[in-house]
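Run Cytochrome c domain-containing protein through structure prediction, thanks.
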Amino acid sequence: MKSKRVAITLIAMGLTTLLIGCAYKRPPWIATECVEGPFAKAGAVKDEAQCVNRSAESFPGADEDYFKDMDYGISQDPQKVVATLEPFVPGISRVPQEAVKAIVRGRNNWIVWTGGDDKFWDHININSQGSFDLLKVLSNHPHLMEKPGYSRDNRWYWFGLVNEPCFRKNVDTQGRPLGRVDRFGLYLDVRDPNCAADPFENEEKYPGVKIGARGKTVPIGSYYGYASGIVGLRLFPNPDFDEAAKKRWDPERYYTDPSYYNDANLVKPYRVGMSCGFCHVGPNPSNPPKDPENPQWANLNSNPGAQYFWFDRIFAYEADKNSFAYQFLSTNRPGALDTSLISTDYMNNPRSMNGVYNLGARMKNALRSGKEQLTGDELNNKQFNDYREISPESPLRRFFEKSGTVFTPRVLKDGADSVGALGAFNRVFVNIGLFSEEWLQHINPLIGGKPFTPFPIATANKNSSYWRATENQTLDTSLFFLAASRPDYLAEAPGGKRHLTTDAATLKRGKEVFAENCAGCHSSKLPEKAVKFFPNNGCVGPDYLSCWNQYWNWTKTDEFRQEMKEIVLKEDFLADNYLSTELRVPVTLLETNICASLATNALKGDTWDNFSSTSYKELPSVGSALIHHPVTREPRSYPMPDGGRGYIRPPSLASLWSSAPFLLNNTLGKFYPSGTVEDRMKSFYGGIEQLLWPEKRYCDQEDLYAAGYYAEKNYGAQERASCENRTYVTRSGKEVPGIIDRTWARSWLLIPEGYLPWYVRLPIHDGILNLGPIPEGTPVSLLSNLDLEKRGGEVKTLLKTLKGHLGDLIAAKVTPDRITDAELRKVYSNLVDPLIGVSKCPDFVVNRGHYFGTDYLPGDEGRPGLGDSDKRALIEFLKTM
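Sure, done. The structure for Cytochrome c domain-containing protein is below.
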């Protein structure tokens, strides 16, 4: 009986997912007049702007320098701007004010341009069964302040989101929150009357798209929407909010009545748009705000990434620990998110937010070793050569050749973005909802269940004014980051110098250790011979691994070490150095969790097919990776596929002191929430020690949080948990502590009946479909990584194990107290291997790998571990970056 309950949970999850996925044959939010033919399909939908005959040119980039105090005040220093741009745009120094205008437009694009994605996020609210609601995230209603317990007052500590300067809570004379009359009663932030108006709300200068109810029951508004009180989120009048929706609208019930706000047919007066800045603007590490809840614009930078962003709380605002979905999202550590959550690849893949540092050095490095080959639809990506503003003598024209050769930085962790810098920028906009009318014809958001097809750039060029307007603006965005992506230095931070050594000998030794052990992956300044291992500026495609292996072996030689030391010891080594080679490194060498390298969205025929190069798609297999059984800890060999997967690009070490916890999923070191220099350094010291002394790594997920901070999970321990029976073997044969993300409480898959098709809703009487229970301690990825497209023997084995258990669904739901979590886990033990058999990524240890400089590397690597004094010297040098 007990095994049947567990089995039915799994079956019901899959069945319900399929039923919900089948419930919406035509997205209801696509206006009829925007569809060519009787129903929406790929290539036959227009975005709302094109639907009402708005051209791309009717969306010029905003020119107000509203954010002038951000980014070290770069836009207020024309000479500094032209000095950084002149190497890429020769002659721009003759017109410094034009250079400043370009970067101002570029920054505005980054922070306030949403490209019509507000309709996408409104749709995702429905597809997430109500758990994701950005209007709730923006709100200060007393019900939300009570449970889960957030408002503008603690928005930074709860969500990790940046409160927009010049806003405050809307309260009465007694300090009690009020709904805003001018926002249909929503409990939103209000602008400080002492501040000037937001220039981007100017409806006359930036007229919004008049469609549906806009101009009738709601204003037309600006195409930049209204400022919301959170940087990166903008409010747009909802064109579906017609007279019937207005009559039904009740702002109090929206916050307090689940039967009302969990109705999939509820139409809200606003949709929330998201800019790139939502995930990338953050506190300036070198000039942090005195109060992180109340920053000034001078305390904010456009480029560090949202390092404190709580993905789980934002995407499941109720933060219900009884929800398996919330516990699944909680595997995304603060500052990390799974960028393929929407276009799911059936893998739990949280990755740290990308900082955008030293873009100029990064682009120069791409000319040396970033060659890729584009063919077919990949050639539809915009290149610098396509813009008349780029003169014939500009070096930016060297990044693309008519043959389809492109020289490109590699943006995503697995190096999949490989079509040029502008293509990388433009793809990000689609990933946050631009021209979602088309994108959602190619994917089934959040749940998958069907093969994905490529988002076609050619169709976007034809049917999306927002896409073309975005392409018109991303040149300026690139120029902005060429001018404004300098590192944040510890020496310039309040109290930072006391963390830096004044001992010249220690610092010199640290540089030498770096040259011998780190620079082969973490420097864009290398000996001239390095490029010879990657002929024709890249050694792209099926021969790449052979070239890499030859290069890697050379980095172990005395020749490399000596030449590299001479380079690192130069005074200007850190200047104009990206601090990464951006070469693709086999994950088998890194020994990190393999899931990030197995991402499939950019493979041939998948959703980002147009945004990855042919040479990426032709990469060879890296061989077999070492993984571990989640219960027995038994090491296993896992054959890695070819076609692009199996590689990770080295991250830049720029501003390394400010970016702990480390590894691509933020699992080395402890998270502290304030963003102060002292707390950043606590994270840094803990993380860098775990990197260089792997035996100090954690084995329990609660240890990743500062003591007493994460109370609802009982997270945050003073002492590291015992690691008995929680260590995992490395390729060296030695074992290190490791974390497997597990549920920390009994949980259920919870689906409000308002989001279910009627034929599933009939037997539900309490308003919620509960599927479970899932016992505390279950490896999250055992369930989240199920490949819903898998066929063959493994599936038959799983189905055979589950066969005959359908009759116990009611018993498992009605009498969950009759079985303990310990008993449930015992039953699960019979299902673990069949579940692993249908896993898209059966790697569960999240904080393993990157053993360079330690004695945990295998002997055949020929790199003996460093002594403690050398490790300490290296740390001193790393703090200067």
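The mean pLDDT is 91.
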